[in-house]
Amino acid sequence: MFAISSKELEKSYGGELVLNKINLEVDTGQFVTLLGPSGCGKSTLLHIIAGLEDQDSGQLDCQGQPITGPAQNRVMMMQEAALFPWLNVEKNVAFGLKERNIDKEKRLELAHQELKKVGLADVKKAYPHQLSGGMQQRVALARSMVLKPDILLMDEPFSALDEQTRFKLQQELVKLWQNTDMTIIFVTHSIREALLISERVLVMASNPGQIKAEYELDLPYPRKPNQQKIVNLEAEILEDLLSEDDQKQKALIEKVAG
Ligand SMILES: Nc1ncnc2c1ncn2[C@@H]1O[C@H](COP(=O)(O)OP(=O)(O)OP(=O)(O)O)[C@@H](O)[C@H]1O
């Protein structure tokens, strides 16, 4: 049974087809990246998988059951940490456990354990504004992980971070994932990021959004950006996206010029 599967999934906004015939099969425990240019529908697809939006047509299942809305076993992490500024770090992490009828002491204990994994147990009494952007995203990661999701959906979670912090968080995320059975679907428009972290890269194209290529990455972790295979694949995917972009631009010029 697949963690997530879709058949001929489609979505339009205002008459514009945004997702076209998305066929997806994600194995349990896999780390999959949706890679593509701005506007190709990556976030829309992730939101539909999260159950935050409906598709117009096509089948979408999680663990063999149709997705009809949000569920506790699917957790979404966004680009902005969006922590509660009035709660300290441990309470931010523990917050989502309230819904699960876990008592306060246990909630804080679980939050502590998760904060330890992201190296932030020592600042659990601090408030979000006291932390750097990278630390805030680590807290957001702990807040997602404490819920022990089967499926973690990540929408460009590191794209607002500086390069070295981003690299560190990529490595940490991979380590955290390796210690679980969690399935991750990660959205990015960084080719390098996709190649450094995931087992499978699905390259999307726009107008309408579709999956146009797929790469299986049978490379051990931790990966380095200067590994020959990564360098070669990065060049290949970039080339592909550039030629796609040229065609789109040509079509747009023809349309605008009449
Ligand atoms: N709620 C909405 N209403 C109308 N149009 C929308 C809505 N959400 C997304 N779109 C449109 O759908 C298309 C795909 O958007 P989406 O955000 O999924 O792309 P993306 O690949 O995630 O882009 P980015 O990398 O810039 O976040 C875009 O043209 C966008 O304007």
TrEMBL record:
The keyword Magnesium does not apply. GO terms for molecular function: ABC-type quaternary ammonium compound transporting activity; ATP binding; ATP hydrolysis activity. InterPro entries: AAA+_ATPase, ABC_transporter-like_ATP-bd, ABC_transporter-like_CS, ABC_transporter_ATP-bind, P-loop_NTPase. Gene3D superfamilies: P-loop containing nucleotide triphosphate hydrolases. Keywords: ATP-binding, Nucleotide-binding, Transport. Residues 4-231 form the ABC transporter domain. It is an enzyme of class 7 (translocase). The keyword Transferase does not apply. It comes from the Bacteria. Its EC number is 7.6.2.9. PANTHER family: ALIPHATIC SULFONATES IMPORT ATP-BINDING PROTEIN SSUB, TAURINE IMPORT ATP-BINDING PROTEIN-RELATED. This is ABC-type quaternary amine transporter.
